[in-house]
Amino acid sequence: MTTDTAVTAAHPDHHSDHHPDPAVVRKTAMWVFLGSEFLFFGSLITTFLLYRTRVNDGPAAADVFDIPFTSVSSFVLLMSSLTMVLAHHAAGRKDWRQMRVWLLATALLGMVFLAGQVFEFTEFVHEGLTVSTSPFGSSFYVLTGFHGAHVAVGVVLLLALAFMSFGGKFRDTEGLNVEMVGLYWHFVDIVWIAIFTIVYLLQV
Amino acid sequence: MTTTTAAPPATGKGIWSWVTTTDHKRIGILYGVTSIFFFLVGGIEALLIRSQLALPNGEILSADAYNQLFTMHATTMVFLVVMPLGAAFTNYFLPLQLGARDVAFPRMNALSYWIFIFGGLFLTISFFVGGGPDGGWFGYAPLSTQVGEVVRMDYWALGLIVLGVASIASSVNFITTVLTVRAPGMTLMRMPVFAWMSFIISFLLLFSLPIVSVGLFQVYFDRNLGTLFFDAANGGDPVLWQHLFWLFGHPEVYVLILPAMGIVSEVLPTFARKPLFGRTFVIFSGMAIGFMGFGVWAHHMFTTGLGPVAEAAFALTTMFIAVPTGVKIFNWLGTIWGGSLRMNTSMLFSLGFIFLFVIGGLSGVTHAVVPADAQQHDTYYVVAHFHYVLFGGAIFGIFSGIYYWFPKVSGKMLGERLGKWNFWTMFVGMNLTFAPMHILGLNGMPRRTYRYGEGLGFDLWNMVATIGSFVLAIGVLLFLINAWRSYRRGEVAGPDPWDGRTLEWTPSSPPPPHNFDEIPVVQAEDDFWHRKYGVDEHGRTVPRADYRPPVPGGPPAGLHLPSPSYYPFLSAFGMFLTTMGLVYVPWGLLVTGLGAVVMMWGLFGWSMENLVREHRR
Fold first, then answer.
1. For B304, which DSSP code?
2. Please, which of B6, B317, B370, B433 could form a disulfide with B468 given CB 3.0 to 4.6 Å?
3. CA-to-CA distance for B540 and B492, rounded, in angstroms?
4. Quick check: is B606 in a domain?
5. Closest to A4 (Cβ–Cβ): which among B244, B519, B562?
6. What pLDDT is attached to residue B559?
7. How far is B600 from chain A (nearest CA, A)?
8. Minimum-distance CB partner of B184 among A4, A14, A18
């Protein structure tokens, strides 16, 4: 995680210089970035809604979707938000060991979700739905694939946080870093809630 | 933050110091010089196009070369010239105008620049490996999705995604800068209008670029993965691409014009020695343009067959958006009304901007009328319209800004005599080139055709336009000579050559790396002006007796500037390799993998950088 804000005075008691709270600066940037991401997924979801019934000769949503299975993997991803909160909470208490446990738990739940997605994709392909079967297939795979890529990036960030905290060199910004990754992680979860509702539940 | 430790500030010399710089002023200069270079590239492309069209049945270019040139002329001018020139000014002057020492994230700022230049390089490389993109800058499917032997439109789609990443990163940076690192007393409404426009532009980019990125990914997947997004034969819908593109494309129009509007709003008050008339109104009009800019995109698609309801709705919003733009025109006129005007080159370019932008704006309103637009669509009338707003508007505004701020950046004044020649040749050239296109368009000459037949009534005006384009080129050449001469042996500019109104005129020219010896405490709008001038009992402006110009001292003790870093360059280079490999699927994926490793190396090195330095101490 980066730590670069404009300029810092070496002495905290140097009052003549104006320097903003780094936590505010970095969190602002993260919220702004997530604002952009909403439009990204918004466009992908819009594309899906346009193409949801254009199935050509291939399977339709109701033919392939396995709602109980996806419900379970959605539950796994939602639970990862809970463990993320616990990690953040532990970081707030400066309980680094606990924090690492919950970070790794979050990463693990994320990986379980990803594994579920890989399994699901494989099943769908076997049932005859590929990216080239129909616009429905194209938009489904690209939307959920981009979401999966976001989850994967989140897993990498979580693992990096957990391993970098072993050395104990990041104590100054540890809590803030966890909070930043947490914001991203919750965002990815929220997008999944939208995807699960719109792409899965409303189409069967 | 607290881990940033004592390291030499970015004042070194040599290429390495520029590669590793994190100083917003140096990054601004890099953006500026790079975009001027691409301006020449795009200009040469334009001259080739005009040479081909000078006479009926032109022989200079083949149809294929012509397609590449018009595609790359537009792509270059939009993404590699006007946008980064806006970014150049924002980089250099946003922190100075806000009374800050740098942007919120200096290294991310460097990253944006390096991604941008690698993206520009990526697009340009395509010319040497099988031809440049040839499907138009709008990339309508199926022009963009047809897969032949060539990878031209892969370069285009991926190149624009890369440039989009650079712009989103700098937007996040600028928005955070405005929201968090303003000087004490610099309330949002006290921010200079240029800073406001940069702020609004950042939001426009932030919300519009992800939309077109999705579209560009879909184009890329259609070409390489066999998806069917825009494949009409298999249920895909090419109109979706048009929506995704113009939902970005129209806010983008305001991204291109708002920097110029911001510059003009700085230049006119300075040279009229009056505050900007209805300043708050100008700011709110900018915001209104930003919001409404997202609600007019389908006026680019009136001939697509959207149906009467959609067409009527977008016709109305398009007419409405002319209102805040018109408000600004009146504000500028109100500013110069009764002012004591100094007619120097910067002022001339600003006045030229108003004149030309009004013409372009009015022809724009004619496009809002759907039946008329159906006639004008895809003719040279449209070409005339957007060149009046983009060249007469954006570029003239930017040139005004260059003449206005060159003394601050270089410490030297630009020559006035050559400057006036520069203005008048560009002004005459611009009108000679683009005014005839109105007539050509209304007479039915279509855009994007590489030849026209004899005896269609197009001969005269095409010849005039071509002559005009060369006059224009001479104007640009005069500017380059002027800049070079001034840089070598120009008149030395003091810190405040124009008797300026905003904070960037307080430090020396060029400003020291730390910008301000002491962070200013802002008391009013146009704070610097009010420190210099007061009002006597008759309401006249008089110099303050107690005003002393600031004496450059040095940075306050214990101040640490952002350290130089090569990780932004490394990460951007990794991204370049990643993208390069994606053009040549499947074997290119090896390069992509290598690029991903380099990028990860860059990003992890980046996040550890402060730590390592801390450790060494």
1. S
2. B433
3. 31
4. no
5. B562
6. 81
7. 11
8. A18
Residue B363 φ/ψ, nearest 5 degrees: -65, -25
How far A85 CA sits from the closest chain B CA (Å)?
23
Q: Is the pLDDT of residue A11 over 80?
A: no
Nearest to A185 by CA among A41, A55, A79, A48: A79
- Fold of the A22-203 domain: Four Helix Bundle (Hemerythrin (Met), subunit A) (1.20.120)
Residues of B in contact with A22 (CB under 8 A): 1-2
Contacts of A28 in chain B (CB under 8 A): 104, 175-176, 179-180
Q: Is A32's CB within 8 Å of B171's CB?
A: yes
Q: What is the band of B55 on the pLDDT scale with cuts at 50, 70, 90?
A: very high
Partner B, chain A 75-114, Cβ-Cβ below 8 Å: none
> Which residues are CB-contacts of B324 (< 8 A; sequence separation ≥ 6)?
B284, B285, B286, B288, B289, B292
Q: Least CA distance to A31: which residue of chain B?
A: B172
How confident is the model over B299-351, as pLDDT tens digits?
A: 999 999 999 999 999 999 999 999 999 999 999 999 999 999 999 999 999 99
Q: Which residues from A are below 8 Å from B557, CB to CB? A: 14
Give CA–CA dist B18/B113, Å, rounded.
11
**Coil, strand, or helix at residue A122?**
helix
- The token pair at B460 is 């005269």
Q: Do A9 and B562 touch (CB under 8 A)?
A: no
* Residue ranges per structural domain of chain A: 22-203
List the CATH number of the domain containing B500: 1.20.210.10
Count of the separate structural domains present in chain B: 1
- Report residue A171's pLDDT band, with 50, 70 and 90 as the boundaries: confident
| B450, part of any domain | yes
| Domain membership flag for residue B11 | no
CA distance B137 to B155: 12
A57 part of contact set with chain B, CB < 8 Å? no
Averaged pLDDT, B370-379: 94
Listed in sequence order, the residues at least 6 apart from A93 whose beta carbon sits closer than 8 Å to its beta carbon are none
CB atoms within 10 A of CB B330: 15
pLDDT score, position A8? 39
ipTM exceeding cut-off 0.95 for this assembly: no
B374: containing domain: 27-550
Residues whose CB is less than 8 angstroms from the CB of residue B527 and which lie 6 or more positions away in sequence, other chains included: B185, B190, B502, B503, B520
Do B271 and B329 contact (CB within 8 A), yes or no? Answer: no
Indicate whether B364 belongs to any domain: yes
User: Are residues B131 and B152 in contact, defined by beta-carbon separation less than 8 angstroms?
Assistant: yes
CA distance B539 to chain A (A): 35
What pLDDT is attached to residue A165?
87
pLDDT digits (tens, 9 = 90+) for A118-150: 999 999 999 999 999 999 999 999 999 999 999
